Amino acid sequence: MILFAAEKAGLQFPGRCEPVFSDLSLTIRKGDNLRLTGPSGSGKTSLMRMIAGLERPTTGRVLALPQNTGMAFAEPRLLPRLSVLENLLFIAPDAGREARSMLDAVNIPDLADKSAASLSKGQAQRVALLRALLARPDILLLDEAFGGLDTRVWQVVRDLVFERANRDGLALIEISHDPARLLSANAKGICLA
Ligand SMILES: Nc1ncnc2c1ncn2[C@@H]1O[C@H](COP(=O)(O)OP(=O)(O)OP(=O)(O)O)[C@@H](O)[C@H]1O
């Protein structure tokens, strides 16, 4: 099943002489694992935003967009005035039981009622991932999302993502400058120059 397709897509921001990328044809199917690579400023995040439907190509065409995307970034972007659980229920109001069980799965069951503003970066990154998963995405987009995690916690996170990927067939798209922090060892690389 095709979740995203672009044909010869290019993206140029207003006021810029050069497009960020051009002539990019890409198809993402259910269950795919992709890694976006390329130097800083080459357009990895911009391409992710296009996959999520947040940027439109300025040349070429997008032929298919996913219905639901989940995104997590290096900066967790939680709502600081809400508790951890409230941040999760904001996305999925009826998923209280699932949210608590996911907090348990990533080793932070005691943080449910803590203020999001009081979390460490690694704790907040885990909550941001759970929020992305609770959106029931077809595609999970991870943009340097796990730099704050120690190896043991990172492995726990990886297990949860793959359990969901196997259950729901979600496609996984990752950006990480550190190959050791890629969840999928079998990800196909898309290199932006
Ligand atoms: N909204 C925007 N308006 C104008 N220029 C933008 C916008 N978003 C990104 N850019 C520019 O597009 C280029 C690609 O940015 P992007 O964040 O996609 O790169 P990246 O490969 O993800 O970089 P990094 O690895 O440093 O995170 C950069 O030159 C950036 O300044």
From TrEMBL:
Pfam family, one: ABC_tran
Annotated keywords: ATP-binding, Nucleotide-binding, Transport
Native species: Nitratireductor aquibiodomus
Database matches in SUPFAM superfamilies: P-loop containing nucleoside triphosphate hydrolases (SSF52540)
Signal sequence interval, chain numbering: none
All residue ranges annotated as the ABC transporter domain in the record: 6-193
Entry superkingdom: Bacteria
Family stated for the protein in its record: Belongs to the ABC transporter superfamily.
GO MF term list: ATP binding; ATP hydrolysis activity
InterPro entries: AAA+_ATPase, ABC_transporter-like_ATP-bd, ABC_transporter-like_CS, ABC_transporter_ATP-bind, P-loop_NTPase
Protein name: Putative ABC transport system ATP-binding protein/sulfonate transport system ATP-binding protein
Organism lineage: Bacteria, Pseudomonadati, Pseudomonadota, Alphaproteobacteria, Hyphomicrobiales
